[in-house]
């Protein structure tokens, strides 16, 4: 696990890239080396090192300092969002967007969408997976879609197999009774799972991670990311076979538990990293989110449009879709609905598991 003292220094370049500032790997290494050489006695030394290495322009210096304060001082700011501020349905009104909520106005239940970024570690309760998760894991290998790979295997197929034919001729003194054939192997498609960990999804976050852990164990190539006010890859943590250990490691990686919602920007960061974007290419993409975020729908619509173009299929699961009569109410969800292959029920773990299995089986046909 990454030591707590080094986490801000690794999170700072990620936050810079998310805000559009250049932060190349070489700059990150130089920044860490500069801080190490300075042996800083105050936060001012770290700030000066950051300005010297990353060199923000005069017009973006103030924004650069705000990002620095968010990471190293724990101050909270609102990220800019494209377009006009969207009014959410009345039942999800989180108050004025441009003001920080007073402590007694915060919703501890996490039932509302908010633009506030809250960074803290979350302790996930331990417990054995129930029968539903075990049944889900057993059904996954047969249900997940498959594709033809570039590798070939012997068998009845349309392509001749010259190597096997030559070996048979050598054994039979140059004679051959039949022409061996080969075919392309089948392999499981990549699965990409994106989990919303914002405050409005608080009640189902732990169950979603346990289900993602089972998916990681049963699938051949599975990638899992969390989305909130930032993007976090938790695939390595969920590779541990022990579910409690896997969730403990994941809880230490994610810093934006139960905070604000900036799905469009988090997805844009995901797509801006070539390695991450390659995870979506030809994949079954599963997004678990209610789609409620502050800001205009432009960022989310653009990101989902590109994600749908890369993916083989996109399954969006929303806890609001538990009602059969549910129809997207926000402008963002209405805009991205035509881009999705299915908008399903994500209200409970058993329904999420059933939606994934049914969609995967139907998509194979």
UniProtKB/TrEMBL annotation:
Signal peptide: none annotated. It holds the Pfam family VWA_CoxE. SUPFAM superfamilies: vWA-like. It comes from the Bacteria. PANTHER family: BLL5662 PROTEIN, BLL5662 PROTEIN-RELATED. This is VWA domain-containing protein.
């Amino acid at each position: 696990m990454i030591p707590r003292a080094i986490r801000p220094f690794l999170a700072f370049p990620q936050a810079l890239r998310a805000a559009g500032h250049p932060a190349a790997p070489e700059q990150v290494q130089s920044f860490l080396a500069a801080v190490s050489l300075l042996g800083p006695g105050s936060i001012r030394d770290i700030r000066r090192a950051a300005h010297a290495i990353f060199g923000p322009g005069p017009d973006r210096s103030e924004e650069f300092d705000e990002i620095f304060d968010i990471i190293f001082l724990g101050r909270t700011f609102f990220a800019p969002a494209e377009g006009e501020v969207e009014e959410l349905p009345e039942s999800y009104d989180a108050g004025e967007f441009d003001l920080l909520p007073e402590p007694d106005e915060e919703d501890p239940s996490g039932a509302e969408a908010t633009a506030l970024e809250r960074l803290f570690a979350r302790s996930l309760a331990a417990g054995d997976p129930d029968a539903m998760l075990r049944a889900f894991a057993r059904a996954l290998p047969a249900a997940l879609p498959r594709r033809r790979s570039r590798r070939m295997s012997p068998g009845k197929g349309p392509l001749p197999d010259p190597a096997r034919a030559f070996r048979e001729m050598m054994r039979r003194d140059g004679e051959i009774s039949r022409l061996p054939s080969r075919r392309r192997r089948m392999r499981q498609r990549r699965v990409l799972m994106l989990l919303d960990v914002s405050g409005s999804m608080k009640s189902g976050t732990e169950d979603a991670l346990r289900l993602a852990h089972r998916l990681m164990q049963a699938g051949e190539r599975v990638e899992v990311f969390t989305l909130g006010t930032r993007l976090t890859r938790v695939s390595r943590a969920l590779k541990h076979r022990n579910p409690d250990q896997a969730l403990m490691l994941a809880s230490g990686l994610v810093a934006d538990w139960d905070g604000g919602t900036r799905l469009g920007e988090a997805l844009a960061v995901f797509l801006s990293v070539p390695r991450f974007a390659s995870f979506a290419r030809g994949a079954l993409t599963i997004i678990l989110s209610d789609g409620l975020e502050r800001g205009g729908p432009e960022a989310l619509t653009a990101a989902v449009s590109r994600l749908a173009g890369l993916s083989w299929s996109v399954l969006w699961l929303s806890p609001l879709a538990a009602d059969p009569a549910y129809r997207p109410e926000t402008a963002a969800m209405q805009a991205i609905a035509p881009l999705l292959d299915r908008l399903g029920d994500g209200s409970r773990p058993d329904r999420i598991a059933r939606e994934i299995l049914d969609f995967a089986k139907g998509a194979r046909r």
